[in-house]
Every structure is written in structure tokens, then in C-alpha cells.
Write a structure and sequence with these properties.
By secondary structure, this protein is of the alpha+beta class. The chain has 2 domains: 80 residues; 220 residues, Bira Bifunctional Protein, Domain 2 (BirA Bifunctional Protein, domain 2, 2-Layer Sandwich). It has a 7-stranded mixed beta sheet with strand order 1-4-5-9-8-7-6. Strand 7 and strand 8 form a beta hairpin. Helix 5 packs across helix 11. It is elongated, with a radius of gyration of 37 Å. It starts with a helix and ends in a 7-residue tail after the last helix. The relative contact order is 0.11. The structure holds phenylalanine.
Amino acid sequence: MDQKIDQIKKEIKCFHIKTYNDLETFRIKFLGKKRGILTILFKELKKISIHKRKIYGKIINELKKEVQKKIFYYKSKNDNEKILKYDPTLPGKSIEIGSIHPLSMIKNRIIDIFLKIGFSYVDGPEIEDDWHNFTALNIPIFHPSRDMQDTFFLCQSPDILLRTHTSSIQIRYMKKHRPPFRVLSIGKVYRNETISSRSNFMFHQAEGFYIDKKVSFSDLKQTIHYLITSLFGKEKIRFRPSYFPFTEPSAEVDIYCNREWLEIMGCGMIDPEVLKNVDIDPEIYSGFAFGVGIERLALMIYQMKDIRIYFDNDIRFLRQFKNEF
Ligand code: PHE
């Protein structure tokens, strides 16, 4: 037996491996399931005494490890050679480059437009409480305008809701800062609305507000004109008297598009009651605010008829914006 083992040891060492086929022959010769030299030896172990079985079992196991080591060595060598054979001059697989979502592009454009006239950009939470979204904006619990802005409430805690507009940012910011300030915020808002070509349960709004001594309605009009001309060049817009509980006077702005007027924003002078709610003296300060729907602007900018396309995530649609600014 000892002689046999020495012989096998030598054979393992001296077996010449050059190709992948040699490697396979080597493996089969020693570890092949039926006729592998070591496999047969393992089987023969059963025939000898327990005492000897232990000694030879250990030795044969070590031979098996030798074989596996050699296989491993040649396998990794072969892999490395494959890497060396790799030709770096061949064209690589191209990586798909994504594009900025069209709504984000408009958002970035609006931010640029307002940074130029001294506005700062702030963010706010989409999950709001009743006070910031309604009550502090002069919309008490019984107010009918709450019906128009029905949203998603948490069953366990009805005080918590998904904001219905970005006007809640006005409250958050004014509570913490003292005027004068010019602020812009853009984000998602939520309403319990049927999905259609012009409305969705979620859309984006840009909110701007400016508070200082002697801010007037003409400042508001001029700012809106500046926004619209920066976005569209020359465009026809009109201010229509309207009502919001948190602005007085209030207006809605329509833009003339495809031979019809399209409503794009609400605006007005911030109501003195709102200023009082955040401890700003309305006798000293006044301000304006506006809220504009980004999807509505997008319909005009990209000449589309249906806002649902912005949320479909259809790659064929999104790819078209690759080369835009
Ligand atoms: N928050 C109003 C809305 O979502 C828009 C608005 C903002 C109106 C600011 C006036 C001032 O309908």
C-alpha cells in the first residue's frame, strides 16, 4: 500500500498540464467518479481494519487535497491568461446615460429664473399637519375651500396629511425668519382628484413669496410677467380676480395657448391674518405669494395635451429629453 501511495504522489506531481483538456484528464484520472485512482482507493479502505483505515484514510485525503490544489492552480492561471488575452482596443459595451426628467428641467429653470432676482430656494415636507396646510393659512376647519383641496389623511392621526399645496412653506418659513425675504419652493402636492389629461392626485407646484415694507400688487404682476417671459419669451397672460383664503386681493393667471386660456397659477397679496398667525406685523409689512403648477407649464413648453405622460415612465418619451439643456 505504501509503495502504491508513493507512486500516486509522484504521478500527481509530475502530471503535465498545458491545456484545459489536460486539466480535465487529470481530474478524471484521480477523482473521476467511477475509475478515479483516489476514488478506488477510498472504496478499498472499507476492506481493511479500522486501525489501518484511519491511517490510510488520512493519507488518501491529503492526496485528494493535492489534486484539488493543482486543479485550482491551473484553473486560476487559465483565467488570468484569458484576461491577458483581452483586447482593450475593442469597442466596449456602451453604458446607457439617463436624462433629466422634463419636470425636473422646468423646476431647475424656474429656480434659475428666481435666483437671478434675489429669491432663495427652500424645501419643505410633503407630509404636513393641519395647521401649516390649512388653519394658519386662514382656512379653518369648517371652511368650504377645504372641500376643493381634499387630500390623503392618516386614519390614526387625522391631523397629519399630504400637503395640498406648497403654501404651507410660507408658514414654515415665516415662523422662523423675519422679513424682508424672497423665497421660492418647488415640490409635490397631493389632492383627492380623478386622474385625467389635466389633473392627477399628485402634481408639482412652485411657490414664491416676497415680504417687505411696501410690497404691492404691481410687484406681484411684474414678477409674474418676468417669470412667464423668461420661460416662453413673449406670451399673452391675463389676471383674473379670484379668491384664496390666504391672499387678499387674489387672482388667477391664465395663459393663452392653442387658442384657449389655460389656468396656470393662483396668486395674491398675503392676507394680514396670515401674517398675524406667524407674528409678522401687517401694519409694517406686506407681501405677495403665488403658486404655479409645473405640469401645466410643461404642457405648454413641450406642446402636450396630457399630463399623464410625465408619470408613465415610458423610456421612449423620456429619451427625447436627452439633449435638452
Ligand atoms: N395654494 C394655491 C393653490 O394651490 C395657489 C396660491 C398660492 C394662491 C399662493 C395664492 C397664493 O391653489
